[in-house]
Every structure is written in structure tokens, then in C-alpha cells.
Amino acid sequence: MTAQLIDGNALSKTLRADVAVRAAALTARGHQPGLAVVLVGDNPASEVYVRNKVKACHDNGLHSVMDRFPATLAEHELLAHIAKLNADPAIHGILVQLPLPAHIDSHKVIEAIAPEKDVDGFHVANAGALMTGKPLFRPCTPYGVMKMFEAHGIGLQGANAVVIGRSNIVGKPMALLLLEAGATVTICHSKTRDIGHHTRAADVIVAATGRRNILTADMVKPGATVIDVGMNRNEEGKLCGDVDFAGVREVAGYITPVPGGVGPMTITMLLVNTIEAAERAAQA
Ligand code: NAP
Predict the structure, then answer these.
(1) Among residues 128, 203, 218, which one has the least CA distance to residue 163?
(2) Domains of the chain by range and CATH?
(3) So which residues are the signal peptide here (predicted)?
(4) pLDDT above 70 covers what percent of the chain?
(5) Count of other CB atoms within 10 angstroms of residue 163
(6) pTM of the complete model
(7) Would you say 15 and 22 are in contact if contact means Cβ atoms under 8 Å apart?
């Protein structure tokens, strides 16, 4: 069996077309959705992510500002800038690109973002809302994965789901969204004794560790759905995921490629969250 590919680029295109329609409708009513992306320092990977996010906004009719600061920026100056964005009616979403320089407490910075503008969904108020089943914003990467299940009619109710990774950004919210959808969820992490024992019983596996080949064909039940969130570089410097793609695709029912899988969905869901924030603000 060769797995069916879940194409994140194609699904993103469809979802972004809907974003553009909603952005145009809001703009026509005088409420153009706006996203502020804040970058501190000159981490090259962060620069690429930020540029892609700003471009995606422009391509789909959202207003976007990119606020760049040197790595020497003091924490209190960053907090003051966020307070300004919180009060700006043209800005509906605020994203602070992580990681921040070591002298800045990223937890403090995220908590300074107004929860109704926290389009990444990382603020404790939004994490708590997600946990209680009443999410305001779903964190973009797991939200994108949920859209992939939906688009391919992959049933989650009663499914055994395994999430490998327990970060606040991907693993934990992914597990909560799967739970909300009715799956029986197991979370594996670096201390899990035998990951394969769990994954072999899974209908759905989401790998989000940043470790190459964390999931191999012998760990996958035939026909299972495998979602690869990981972003790594192989020996040749090429982008690859956490999953042994060549082996696992011969066993799985559905699989996401890297690149072209979850990556484009993350930016798409950032646009969706910003539109939702702007629609709420327009109603208020
Ligand atoms: P993270 O904060 O470093 O968390 C990694 C998680 O993986 C941790 O929970 C860790 O367990 C677990 N882990 C590490 N080694 C493991 C092992 N050998 N066996 C089992 N679990 C292991 O990373 P993250 O932010 O969640 O990101 C994970 C990956 O997804 C990275 O490659 C990142 O670049 C990628 N990512 C991609 C997108 C996208 O749009 N495609 C978005 C976000 C992240 P412990 O908690 O026990 O340490």
C-alpha cells in the first residue's frame, strides 16, 4: 500500500482564497484586518518565517506591519511596544517571533499581548480556553493539522491518536484538539519508554519532535494517518521531517510530506486567526 499524500500547499490555497474573500468583505466595511509581526534580533530562520508571514498577509488582502528591533532591545522596550500594538485599532493580531534573545523573558512578553489579539494562541488565557473546550484562538500548527483531517474526511471520533512531542506550541495543543474531536489521545515524549508500542495501536500519529526518523515503518499500523510536523535538515542540508517518509508511506493510509505538508498550513491558519480576530473586533 502506498499512502495518499495530504498536500498542504493545495489545501492552503483553498483556505487562503476564503481568507481573501473575508478580508475583502471586512475592508469594504472599513475594518481591514491587520497583523503586526515583531522580530527581535537577526536569527536567519526567524527572518524567513517573518517575511513569509508578511507576504502571505499582503497576498490575501490583510494589512501587515513588520516591527524589527536589534537583539540589544531591552525587555521593557519590547513590552512598551506590545502595549502600543494592543491599543492600535488597525492591528487585530500580534505575533512575536520566537525565540527571543536570552535576556528577554518570552513568557512575560507573550502574557503582555492582549488575549483577543494573540493570534498564535500562546497566551495562558488562550491555552486555558483551549483546555476547557472553548478556544478563542487555536495555535496555528495544530489548527492546520485539524484542517487536514477535515479536508480528507479522516474520522477522529473514537480513533486512537498518538502525538509525539509535548511542547506548548505544538504537542500539547495538538493533543487537546484531538481530544476535543473525540479521539483517545496518548502523548509520547523524550521520556516515553517504547514509542512504537503506542504508535502501533494508533489510527492517527502526529510527530512533532524535531528529531529525524523518530517514526519508522515498523512503528506504524497499516492504513494509519501520519502527520509530520517536524522540520529538520538532512546530511545534504535538505529540509526533512521527523518521519522516515520513504518507509512509512508504504504502510500508512495518509501521510504529509515535508516540505509541502504542515508548513504552509501554519501560515494559513495565522491568516485565519487574524481574520477571526478582525471579525470579532468589527462586531464589537
Ligand atoms: P520542542 O519545543 O523542541 O519540543 C520537542 C518535543 O519533542 C518535546 O516535547 C520533546 O520531549 C520531544 N522529543 C524530543 N526528542 C524526542 C525523542 N527522542 N523521542 C520522543 N520525543 C522527543 O519543539 P516544537 O516547537 O514542538 O517543534 C517540534 C518540531 O516541529 C520542530 O522540528 C519544529 O521545527 C517543528 N515545527 C514545525 C512547524 C511547522 O509549521 N511545520 C511549526 C512549529 C514547529 P520532552 O518534552 O520530553 O523534552
Answers:
(1) 203
(2) 30-114 (3.40.50.10860), 140-263 (3.40.50.720)
(3) none
(4) 100
(5) 32
(6) 0.97
(7) no
pLDDT(140) > 90: yes
Helix/strand/coil percentages in the chain, nearest 5 = 45, 15, 40
Is any ligand 1 atom within 6 A of the Cβ of residue 141? yes
In angstroms, rounded to a whole number, what is the distance separating the alpha carbons of residues 259 and 254?
Answer: 16
CA of 87 to the centre of ligand 1 (A): 34
Nearest to 89 by CA among 280, 272, 270: 280
Determine if ligand 1 sits within 6 Å of the CB of residue 169. yes
Residue 71 binned pLDDT confidence (cut-offs 50, 70, 90):
very high
Sign of torsion, CA 8 9 14 16?
A: positive
Annotated binding site for NADP(+): 165-167
Averaged pLDDT, 10-15: 98
Q: Report which ligand 1 atom has the smallest distance to the Cα of 242.
A: 32
Ligand 1 contact via 97 beta carbon (within 6 Å): no
Positions at the binding site: 165-167
Residues with active-site annotation: 53, 97, 120
Tell the residue nearest (CA) to atom 17 of ligand 1: 190
- pLDDT single digits (tens) 95-126: 999 999 999 999 999 999 999 999 999 999 99
* 170 CA to centre of ligand 1 in angstroms: 8
For residue 240, what are the contacts with CB-CB under 8 A and spacing of at least 6?
212, 230, 232, 233, 234, 258
